[in-house]
Amino acid sequence: MITQKLIALADVPYRDFTAALIPTVDKSRIIGVRTPAIRTLAKDLLKNESEKAMFFLEKLPHYYYEENNLHAFIIAELKDFEQVMKYTERFLPYIDNWATCDTFAPKIFLKYPKETLTYVQKWLASTDTYTVRYGIGILLSNYLDAHFNPIHLQWVTAIQSDEYYINMMIAWYLATALAKQYEATLPYLTSKTLKPFIQNKTIQKARESRRIAPEIKDYLKTLRK
Q: Which is one Pfam family of this protein (predicted)?
């Protein structure tokens, strides 16, 4: 049983550490398995027990936090874009924490930027907190370099939410965008039309970045609300 494989990898002190970082998941649902071990298990299952791995993807919802992470990592190892997207769409509503959300990154999305972007737009319009956060995260990781389009900044800044985990991701996205696409991003800070929390968190994260010059950090500080 796959769950038993995870339990066999438990690290109790690490469980306590993880529980403190993820307040939205009850501690009883955390086994305490380190992420590299879960990634290795996902690869091993697909290589040696592929039928069990694919059956596991059909079993939702899962109980344990690590089961969700394993689910994400199995999807990320699949090689067919349509298959990956089918399982991703089915899985997103079951994500209940920032850590699972932020570590779920199928590499195949990079090979299909145009197709993936269509789904990203839909995810940004979702009413589910972690689906929206996931969409912003994909824009952050995959669309701030060669595939950047200034309209992506409009999509993200147009999101209106009181959810902490959405607004934190918006700030993280904008801070990264300042490092990579400064000229396109700066007007969103100088206009001071962002929510104070997002404006100030963006500036904080940008000032913590090693990719932004000291003089720019000093200027950003003057834009705090």
A: DNA_alkylation
Contacts of 132 (CB under 8 A, 6+ apart): 123, 124, 126, 159, 161, 163, 166, 169
Paired tokens of 116:
């993936």
Question: What are the Cα distances from residue 62, in Å, to 10, 54, 65?
Answer: 17, 14, 8
Cα 139 from Cα 187, distance rounded (Å): 19
Mean pLDDT by 10 residues, the chain (225 residues): 95 94 97 98 96 96 98 97 98 98 97 98 98 98 98 98 98 98 98 96 97 97 95
Q: 């009181």: which residue's tokens?
A: 162
pTM (2 decimals)? 0.96
- The single-letter DSSP state of residue 212 is S
Cα–Cα distance for residue pair 70/171, rounded to 1 Å? 28
